[in-house]
Amino acid sequence: MATYTFIANHQGGIYVRQVDARNILQACRVWADEIIKWQDISDLDNSRFLKNFSDDLQDLPPVPLQNTPNVWGFSVGSGRNFILVNIVRTDVKNIETPSLVQVIEAL
Q: What is the rounded distance in angstroms from the CA atom of residue 45 to the CA atom of residue 88?
């Protein structure tokens, strides 16, 4: 399993979520399910999003970004708008997150 970080831009808002999956397509499906489950994007028409997501994923799957390993781009229709999504395969095993105190001291 790998961790994938989804960075979605929708109507000026940025929505970030991480999911674990075996591959990029499974990660996309898990991400879409979680978008609906947790209602990350409050003004999203859930049924339209899921239909468009399924159609878009089949017709226009995530595209690897040139010269950038482990990064993909993807878009999905959400009615009259689109959700632009960047996906990063993220190694979270060896990441140390600094505390707030450490961040302030570094300033």
A: 25
> What CA–CA distance (Å, rounded) separates 66 from 72?
9
Strand partners, 7: 16, 86
- Tokens representing residue 21 in the block: 């999956």
Q: Is the dihedral of CA 107, 102, 100, 87 positive or negative?
A: positive
* Cα 66 versus chain centre, distance: 18
Tell me the residue length of the chain: 107
> What's the predicted TM-score (pTM) here?
0.83
- Helices and strands counted in the chain (H then E): 3, 5
Task: Express each pLDDT in 53-83 by its tens digit.
Answer: 988 888 889 999 999 999 999 999 877 788 9
- On whether the CB atoms of residues 86 and 7 are closer than 8 A, the answer is yes
As a whole number of angstroms, the distance between CA 41 and CA 39 comes to 5
